[in-house]
Structures are given as C-alpha cells and as structure tokens.
Amino acid sequence: MNEGISKRINRIQFALLSPEEIRKMSQVKVITADTYDDDGYPIERGLMDLHMGVIEPGLKCATCGGKVDECPGHFGHIELAMPVVHVGFIKEIKSFLDACCGVCGRIKLTEQEMGDYRVKLTEESISNSEPEHFALMSKKVTDLASERLVCPHCGAQLKKVILDKPTTFREEGIKVTPKEIRERLERVPDSDLIFFGLNPEVARPEWMILTVLPVPPINVRPSITLETGERSEDDLTHKLVDIIRISQRLRESRDNGSPQLIIEDLWDLLQFHVTTYFDNQTAGIPPARHRSGRALKTLVQRLKGKEGRFRSNLSGKRVNFSARTVISPEPFLSVNEVGVPEKAARELTVPVSVNVFNIEETRALVKRGPEPRDEFGKYVAGTNYVIRPDGRRMKVTPQNAEENSTRIEPGWTVERQLQEGDIVLFNRQPSLHRMSMMGHSVRILDGQTFRFNLADCTPYNADFDGDEMNMHIVQKEEARAEARIIMKVQEQIMSPRFGGPIIGGIHDHVTSLFLLTHGNPLFSEEETIHILSYVEIDHLPEPEIVDGKKYYHGRDIFSLILPPGINLKFRSKLCAGAGEKCEYENDPEDKDVLIIDGKLLHGTIDDAAIGAFSGAIIDRIFRSFGPKETARFIDRMTKLAVGFISFRGFSTGISDYDLPESAIERINEIAEDAIKKINKLIEIYRAGELQSLPGRSIEDTLEIEILSAAGSARDESGKIASQFLGLNDPSVIMARSGARAKMLNISEVAGMVGQQSVRGGRINRGYYGRTLPHFEVNDIGAMSRGFVQSSYKEGLSPIEYFMHSIGGREGLVDIAVRTSRSGYMQRRLINAFEDLKVDEERMVRDTVGSIVQFKYGEDGVDPTRSDHGDTVDIDQIAFDIKQGAKK
Amino acid sequence: MTVLIFKDSKKNVELFSKETPSKYAVDFEVPDEISEAYVTTDGKSFIYRLSIGEKSTFKDSKNILKKKKTGLKSIIEITRIEKIEPLRIASFKKSGKKLGSFTNFDYVDLQSIKMSEKADYTLTLAPDIRDIIKEAKERNIEIPESLAEHLVKYKKDFSKKEFSELLDRVGKELSVNMIDPHEAVGIIAAQSIGEPGTQMTMRTFHFAGVREMNVTLGLPRLIEIVDARRTPSTPSMTVFLKKEYEENEDMVLSVVKELESTTVLDVSDIVTDISEMKLVIRPDKGKMKERLVVNDDLVSALSKVKGIVIDNSDGKDIEIRLQKESFSKLYQMQEQIKTLTIKGIPGIKRAIARIEPSSGKWVIYTQGSNLKEVLEVDEVDSNRSYTNDIIEIYNVLGVEAARNAIFNEALRTLNEQGLEVDRRHLMLVADMMTFGGSVRAVGRQGISGKKSSVLARAAFEITTKHLLRAGLIGEIDPLTGVAENIIVGQPITLGTGAVDLVYNGRRSAQK
User: Fold this and answer.
1) At residue B511, does pLDDT exceed 50?
2) Structurally, how many domains does chain B consist of?
C-alpha cells in the first residue's frame, strides 16, 4: 500500500501545447486510419497502436510494458497535412489578426502607447488577482490597435480581416488560409503578447493553429466488443479516423498537384473534422453524426455540463464500501444507531491493520472465515479479504481461513466485516443540509432494510413509503474519529439553521405524551409498571394513595425521564396565545409548562416541549447536559411515548368529524349566505355600482371581495366545527398538540372545503367565458368559479370535485417547479460560499485571504449554539439562578 | 515634511531591503533636506519607508546597488527600511494639493494624518447599560450591547451576589457559544438558506399589508435577491412623511399627487380626427379625481409640448392642432401625448396613502420605485422611507446601505414565509455579495465567476471557456478552495482539513 509520505499538489499551471511538445510527448506517430487487423490485433502505427496503451487483457503496453490496469496510457500524434484553426481560440486569433500588422507582425500601437500600456498591463497582472480586469484592459488596447489600418512600425497599408463564422477568415472577400494565418502569428514578437493577455512563457499565438494533433491514449477512448464479437469504437476514435483519412487524401492531392479547388475542399473538410473533434456543438457547423444519426460526443461534450467529466467524475465520485436499501422504522433503536441487514453487513468491511498489539485478535478474526455465527446462529463479524503489505488482496474462504490466519503478520491488513458498534455514515438524498448525512453506530438486525429511530426522520426528511437510503463505511481511523466526534446524530441535534433542536418527537410521540400529561391523569400501579417497562427505569415515582391503592400521575411518570436538576418554564403549544387562563386546561397554572429540578409540575407536554424544530425541553437538556444526555433523553422519550400510546390505544376515523345536526345546519347556512353575498356583489358589479379599491380595476376589486367573502365563510364554518369538536376528539388532539395537521384541515373535513384557487385567484380557465359547459357563458357566480361548499366528509359534488382537482394539480406542478428552482439556487449559493471560513482570529475570509467579515455574524457566535439566534439565553440563566437561590 | 517618493521594481526592493544599510544608486537627484523616502512597487500603494542618510552624486564603485544599469544620477545611503501599512498616493500632497499621480519619482509633502481618538461608543448608550458593560469588563467579559440591554432588567431584580453570578455565567456561556476557527461558515449559510427554499411557496404574488398592492414574495423573491437583479419584478416603496406631516391628510394627499406619475392617457381618452387634422383629448372625470389631477394640470403639461396649438376654449375637451399639418406628424404626436407625464416622479406607477393601523399615522405605498427623486421631496422623511430595489439603494446610498438592504429583504422574505433562519447566515450572504465594494450576484456572473481557481470555475458553469482561456494566459490554480481540491483528490482546506497534526513521538529522555 502507498502509505507513508503523502504529497500535496500545491498548484497547477495551465499552458498551451506547442507542436514540439506534442511530438515530444507522443509515443507513436499515427499514420494509418485503421484500428485492428483481421485477427483483432492492433495495427501498428494505427489508432489503436500498442504504444498508446492497452485495454485488452493479456496484451502488454509497448511503451511502458504495463498490463491493463497498470499502464496509464500514452499519447500519440497525427501530423496534419495542412494546418487548421483550433475552434476554441477563434476569438483570440481574430483579435491577433485585427490588432497586429500582417506584414511585420508588430501590434499596431506606437512606441509611446506601447510603453504606457505595457506598464499598466504589467501592473495589473502583478497586483490584481482577478483576471477579469486584465481581460478588460487588454480588450481596450487591442480595440485601439484594431482600428488602425496603417502599421505604425513598417507603414504597410492593411486590410480589415472579417471572421466568416465559424472558422474562416477573409480579407476583402478573399480567404486567408490557416497557413497564412499561422505565418502571420509567427511574426508577432514575444514582447507584444502581453497586450493580448498571453503569457509568452506558456503560449505562442501560432500554437492556436494546429499542425500536429495529439492522439489521446487508448484508455481515454476504449473500444468495446459486443456479444456478437463485433467491435464498436469510441466516438473520439471515429473522429480521429476521419481526420487521418482526410489528412492523407489532402497530402496526396497536394503532392500530386491536384487542382486548387479540390485541395481547398479537402482542406475545409479537414477543418470541419478537427473542429467537430474538439467541439461537436459549434454554432454554424452541423454536428458530426454517428451512422445511427446520433450526434457524436467529442472532447468538449465530454467535459461539459451535469453529465460531463467535471461535474460527474471529478466533483463527485463513485465509492466502494457503501450500501443502499429501503428504510423502515424501529422505535427500540437509539437515535444514534442504525439497523443494518445481515446481508449488507457481510459485504461491507472495515480495514484493520495488523500490529503487534492486535495480532492475536486479528488472527482469530481471519480464522472465523467469511460467514461465522455464534452457537445461537447469530451474526458474528468475519473476514472477507486479507491484504499483504505489497497490496495484494486475498479472498478469505471457509477453506483457506485457517491457513490465512497463520499467515498474517504486522503490516498486513484484514478486511473485517461490519460488527455492532462500528461507526458508519448514513445519508438520504437530496442532501440539502449537513444533517442529511450523519454518523450512526451499527446494529446488525434481521431483515432486508435499514432501520432507525423515528426521531431521525426530521433531519433526513425521510418517511417510510418506500424511501431508500445510503450507508457508507468509513475506512480510516481519522475519518472514523471525525464521524464519531463531529457527525454522530447526537452532535447534530441542534440545527445550524436556527439554533434549535431539529431532532425530536414526531407524530405519535407528541400525541402520546400529550395524553400522558394533559390534565395529569392517574394510572394504577400495574399500568404504570407496564408503561415504564418500555423504558429502562427500575423505580416508580411517588404514589398517590386513593382508596388504599397506589396510583401514579402521568406527569410524574414523564418526570422520570427528565434529567435531575433541570429547571424550565415555557408556554405549551396547546395554550399558545392564551390569556390569563387557558381554555383547554382546568388549572390556570397549567398554561405554562413548569419543570423544577427535573420534575414536571405544571403544564402539558406537546410539540412545544419535545417536538422537532421547537422542543424546549430538548433544547434545554442539550445546552445544560450536552449531546450524550440529550440523545439519552430522546431515546427514552420516544420509547416512553411508544410504550404509553400502545398501551392506551389511539385511533382516528371518520367519526371524529361527526357534528350534531344543528351544527351542520349552521354550516349550510353559512355556505348559503356566502353564495348569496357573492351573488349580491356580482349584482352590484353588473349594475356598475361597485366602488373600486384604490389602484385596482373594478374587476379586480370584485374578485378580491368575492375571495374574502369565500374565505370568511370557510373560517366561520371552521369555527363552528371546532366548537363542537373538543379535546376528546382524536383528530383535534393531534391538531392541538401539534402532532399532525392543523385545525384548518379539520374544518375542511367537518365544515366546508372552501374556495379553490389557481394562481391566487378564483378558477377562471377552461372554455370561452366559463369553466365548464354546465354553466352559462359569463357566469361568474360562486359555483362556476370553484367554490366548494361541501365538506370532505359529506362528499363533493362532481363539479366541486373537478374544481378541487384543478387546485390540487396546481399544487403538484408548483412542487415540481419549486424543487428544480430552489435546487439550482442552492447549487449557486454553495458554489459561491463554499470557500468561506472562519480563521484563527474569528474573521471570515475567502480563499484569497480577503476579509468578508471582521467578526462572524457581528457577535462571533455560532448559530448552532445560539439560542434561536440570540447570543446568550439570559432569561434561562437568570431563572436557573433564582431556582438555585430558592433551594 | 518633504519626502521623496519613488517607484521601483520588486526585485530591487527585495535586494536593498536584504542588504540594508546600503548604498543605492538612483536615476534622479536628491536634494539635501530629504531624509525619508517612500517606495512603491505598483504605483498605487507605498509599502516601504526608507530612512536616508548621506547623499552624493553618482560615481561607479563596487559596493553600491543600482536601480538601473544606465542613467544613474545620485547615490543615497539607506540606513533603515521598514514595511508599513500601505499608503495611498492620495496621502501625499504637492504644493498643497492631493497627489493624483506621479511618474518615476517626486518630492512631496507627507500629509500628516491625525487619527482622532475614536470616541468610546459606549458613551452614546444609556447610563445603566453602560454601567453593566463596565461591570462586565471588570470581570474580563466583553458583553455586546444587546445583552447588556437585556441585563438591565435583572440588575434591578437581583441581589448583588446574584447579579455577579449572572454576569459570570453569561460570560462563560458567551465564550462557549463562540464559533470554532476553520468552521465552514459559508457552506452552512448556503445550506441554511437553500434548504428551506424547498418549503417556500412559488406564488409570485401576495398581498403584503396593503391588499391593493402586489409584491413578489417567497422563492422567486429570494432568487431575485441573490441574483442582484437590476430591477426587481415588483419594485415598491414605503414612503414615510416627516413627523409633522404624518397626520395631516391634506399634506399626505398632496405628496401622493406629487409622487404618482400620471400620463395623459391615464386620465383621458385621445381621439384622432383625421378629417379635421386634430387630436381631441377627452378628460375622464372619474379617473382624474382618482389620480388627483385637475384640468389645468393637463393643459399646462400639454403646453410644454412644442409644435402644437392647444384649444381649450370650452373647458371640457382639449383640441390640439399641429403647426405644420402632416398625417405622419399627427400620429407621432398622438403617441407622444399618450405617454406625456402630467405630474409625478418617473417610475412611480401608483401611490396609495393608508393609515397604518398600529400607529394611526399615514404611510404612502407605491408601485414602482425611484428612491433618489422621492427622497428629494421635502415632506418625505428620508430616514425611514424605504424601497425594495436593492440596486437602487446601492446607487443612491452606497454599498453599506445595499448590504443592509440585502440582509433586510432576505430576512423579511424568509420570515414572511414563517421560516426560521438565523440572521448570521443572511449577514454573511449580504457581506459576501457586497464586500468587494459593489453588489455582486451569486452565480456565474458574480461571485462564482470571479473565483481565483480555474478548476472551480470550470466545474461550476461554462467549463470550456475557462479552460481554454487558462491555457493562453498560463493561469495558475493555487488550489486553495474546496472545489478544486476535491477535483484533484486532496483533503479540503476547511474544518479539520485546515489543520495538520504532527505526532512528535514519545520523548524518551523526558520521564
């Protein structure tokens, strides 16, 4: 293995290849357009010459002697019969032809100007790190020189050169051949190159006209053998074949003294092939096509865009030691764990380097072979490969395990299968923030899916409707340390986005703890023990004796999982916005959750206490007790919640939305009133008596009024519905506790669905003047424009259903558009900001060293550690001190 | 004090700074009174100060350093050289004027720049806040103003002992909460703004405060902000009047009238009468009332147009004839009059005055924005009036104001969507977009296109252009950023990759 000294690339300089250099690095001059002979052996001096590398097993490279995976490939070259222009540099060639004298080659500036600009440009290139400025300045200079038609040096009268796109230059209609251009460019002295921004040390202008073409190594353009035995060549090889053919014909015609016209045609053809070899999407040139009609993928196409080399192979790479499968929930795992199926664990390995301290263990490990189990048939980590110090890997099989175990010595590496406790990275795409990839410790489980605690769904934005996730096994000690110390789930509980917890209870966790603590119910000893059996707690809280029997309060049960010493007071979600007394609590004290020394004294636990994004208790524990304790709390909290709700039972159904007859009548009345009101508005409008709102046309005003009438009708009906549906209704419990859904959704089911909208207005598209043929033309009444007066429970009429679908479809389209737009915005943001970092003095700098901020965020505080953005939570500290004083 | 300034090559400066004290031959004469010189290498900023001892005319001898090979005139003795904070050319004066440029060398006066002692900003704070900051400082705790403000409340309620404990714990928490060095704050900021983007609405239009007015919100607005578009899709202003006029309805309406730009077509119909060769303008009473225009305004606006005769004898319709009759001119005139501005500020399409329910004061909301001219209106309170057009703020008020505008607009957009994003991330975005002195967009035209690394630029967008260009100018990729190091397969330079660990081994000698 190549361990030991690691080198770092310090910098990379770019340059142009000169013809000499192309020849120098070439291993073979390619002269034959053919690839393989009849035996399938590469033709010498052909495009697949063995000097350029090997792609077939069994053959050896003629240059380095390496076999298939050893030889890196070598360049060859083609001598072009006549020079051609390089498409990528057309603009630069043009500016040279414009600004330089065609006779003497000097730039058309007077000595005086040259002196001035030279000083300016050298200054610019030394002092300015931004190439843009330099380019702008050089453009100015060349523009000035281009305007002159008389050379100030030799006095020659010059003609204007016109670029006939894409690759032809003309002087007063007469073509300037690439050969002529090259001769002109050769005359430009090195000292004048600075005006064009060229660095004479790395580039000469005449190198932009090609006389020699490098042929890329075979590894770059491998040919594939189809099942039929037929060979299929790479697009680049096809293109090179064309170039060699035409170049040869051109050479022959030229030497035979063929007519000028034929030579010129061939020359143009050669130019076409070389142009498309570089870029097959050049404007003004028909793309070169494959026999099937597919456009060829040539050099530029290989690099460019999302599927190009840069974005798909250099900025992102495929990796080994990774796994992907469907995910499913497992409430009995810790948030820090992930359940890995046995099948995956057997494939994935961790390298263990053998040394004098672990030689005995590693020997035992290898001895177990690749599929060991303990006496109960349970999974035990085995070994898949052993790697010798020279890098050779040897597969461990049940047969050779014994033998291999005796062979390993310090210096060897053993690839051990996954075992419980290994740290792995777990990831779900799209990876929008850093919590999309976190460190988990492995638990080997039966089954075929990855499993994790439900609290981890929020940061991954995962659900279990078929989602898949990826797992990566970190391979180095350094990486493992980082994964464990920085990336582990417990370290990521606080979101850097807003300085609050992003991991917390969801859905049933919230519902369950709400039910456990709301109104502080009593549970018998037996019940309490059952509930607590889910959590590893071996003692009971203080009992309340009723009729000689022991009973326990729900809040006291919850208090058992709180860390001792925690003091906290906050408003519960249930009572958010309540005044002196909360309408949902009997005891006015219960509107605030009060926790003193780890005891829940008042209030109801809901989303505001333990929920992801908002959970005040989780927030507090993380700040006061650290990540480990928080993970423990979340583990026990989720288990307690699951334990309690599965004991108590909780279900929801359509009967949740049953309203008494009187309420339904009132809702219908409201709907009728709304329709009447809308009709009235239309009447007023038709009579021309509608007062327009300032800045709006009368039509707009009407729409606004109707929308607000329809909106208030829905709100009214919602109010009535929630009047009759109290906190004993499961759906309402979910909405009020913040577990799932909003009261609005309940009123849609029980009361009225309301106005459907497209682009913020009523639905008004479809036929001429109407939305459906069921209406009269120009009917702008409530029903024809998408007002749904039914409730979901009652059911929608066909027309209502159709209108509702229109609104629904808009939502779907919206999501599709949004994801792509916000994705691109994030890519741009990341690209623009990726290099910023805080330096040792807590200043924010970019890569060049420019200071972006003198103090990060004006106070130097990490948003992750801030209290929802505030520098320090003074109130909480004060509250703690007061509690301490009371004691 | 007269000093010598001159320009020299980097190589020379290196040479004589290494060999100081030394004798240096220069290509100009040096008067006797000069004892100090400043050297520049780029002609812009002076970074070396030389102390000059003896001066003599040039004689070729062995132990002297030469500025040039020929044309040397005198020799100066450099006794001391020190690197200084860069001085700009403008720091020097010649015959009382600031120096704009100089060629090879010059004798100038060094402007003595006196930094007046920076006033202690805490003096501007309320005394109780100042006391708390002072008290904290005695305990070696630097407390931000906002925290001190918050602490005032506890100063009263708490006993002395309790309060000092509070201060200590606040100080401790503050130091714990500091950001870690090498943290990749840029990526965190980009993620924190990008991630909630998926949850934002696409609805372009929304009613903000005034339901008559449309404002772009949500994701489109956020994209617009980071794009630094020249004009937002819905520019609008919130114009406050000076305190004394705020409750005066008449005054407010007159300002509205002054702001709102109204064209002839907005308040009237224009009819072309070809047979009579005239234009007839028929004012619309309703529209005129709505736009606060009277007939006289219309006539006076029209009277400024050249080459026409106006007839408004009956006080109703206005007839317009050309001085020289011609059909094509008539049509041209019609087009010209259609868009003729009667009154108002260009760019302000609508202005609506409203009483703000929370304060009971009048506020004017406008559609369209023209910050410069609105601020020039006397009655307008230039301190509070606001536009959502960031580039306009940049042009009128400068880059610092633009930075705050980006921050405020982004924060407002996110908060309006009910998304919680730490303001530090938005600050970083605003600072990154503006720290170069102008507003730069996020994207290939702006920040990403100006990166120092070829590979990073090529990997982002327009791959080939960057690569070809790099070859010509022999660009060097310093491999300092993230993207380029990933491309070459090296650890990145942020976070744990920014530090190196060296294991020294156990020192057996020390036991």
Assistant:
1) no
2) 5
Query: Alpha-carbon torsion A728, A734, A738, A739, what sign?
Result: positive
Total CB pairs under 8 A between chain A and B = 344
Q: Distance between CA atoms of A484 and A557, rounded to whole angstroms? A: 33
Residue B506 lies in a domain: no
Query: Mean pLDDT lowest for which of A401-415, A489-503, A683-697?
Result: A683-697
Check residue A102 and give its pLDDT: 82
pTM: 0.84
- Which residues have a Cβ under 8 Å from the Cβ of A221 and sit 6 or more positions away? A233, A234, A235, A236, A237
Q: Which of A758, A783, A813 is the last residue of a domain?
A: A813
Residue A576's SS3 state is coil
Nearest CA in chain B to A705: B211
Mean local confidence (pLDDT), A542-567: 91
The domain spanning residue A800 has which CATH number?
A: 1.10.132.30
For residue B111, pLDDT beyond 70: no
* Tokens (6 digits) for B432: 């990154």
Residue of A nearest to B200 (CA): A818
Domain membership flag for residue A868: no
Separation in Å, CA of A15 to nearest CA in chain B: 4
Average pLDDT for chain A: 89
Do A185 and A172 share a domain, yes or no?
yes
Identify whether residues A47 and A112 lie together within a single domain: no
Q: Is B141 on the interface with A (CB under 8 A)?
A: no
CATH number at residue B401: 1.10.1790.20
Does residue B54 have a pLDDT over 70?
yes
Q: Which residue of A has its CA nearest to B365?
A: A695
Residue closest to A48 by CA, chosen among A74, A20, A22, A80: A74
The residue of chain B nearest to residue A93, with distances taken between CA atoms, is: B472
Please give the C-alpha separations between residue A471 and each of A323, A427, A449, A463, B478, in angstroms, as whole numbers: 5, 6, 12, 17, 34
Environment class of residue A683 by beta-carbon count within 10 Å: exposed (0-12), middle (13-18) or buried (19+)? exposed
Give the pLDDT of residue A679: 92
Residue B352 belongs to some domain of the structure: no
**Measured distance CA(A233)–CA(A864) in Å, rounded:** 54
Q: What are phi and psi of B322, to 5 degrees?
A: -85, 150
Instruction: Quote the number of domains for chain A.
Output: 5
- Cα A482 to Cα A878: distance, rounded to the nearest angstrom: 36
What's the domain range around B339?
262-343
- Do B14 and B73 lie in one domain? The reply is yes
Hey, are the CB atoms on B442 and A828 less than 8 Å from each other?
yes
Compute and round to an integer the Cα radius of gyration of chain A.
38
B190 to chain A: which residues are within 8 Å by CB?
A: 826, 829-830, 832-834
pLDDT recorded at residue B213: 66
Provide the CATH number for the domain around residue A370: 2.40.40.20
Measured between beta carbons, which residues in chain B are less than 8 angstroms from residue A830?
Answer: 187, 190-191, 194
Determine, for residues A834 and B483 on separate chains, whether the beta-carbon distance falls below 8 Å: yes
B457 shares a domain with B439: no
Cα A188 from Cα A198, distance rounded (Å): 12
ipTM above 0.85, yes or no: yes
Q: Is A882 exposed, middle or buried (0-12, 13-18, 19+ CB in 10 A)?
A: middle
Return the structure tokens found at B212: 């008559």
Residue B395 and residue B328 share a domain: no
The verdict on a CB contact (< 8 Å) between B154 and A878 is yes
CB contact under 8 A, B166 and A874: yes
Asked which of A182, A208, A234 is the last residue of a domain, the reply is: A208
Min Cα–Cα distance to chain A from B485, Å: 9
- CA–CA separation, B498 vs B384, rounded Å? 45
Quote the domain boundaries for residue A610: 508-648
Interstrand relation of B65-66 and B22-26 (parallel, antiparallel or unpaired): parallel
Q: Is residue B359 part of a domain?
A: no
Residue A112 tokens, joined = 């005086």
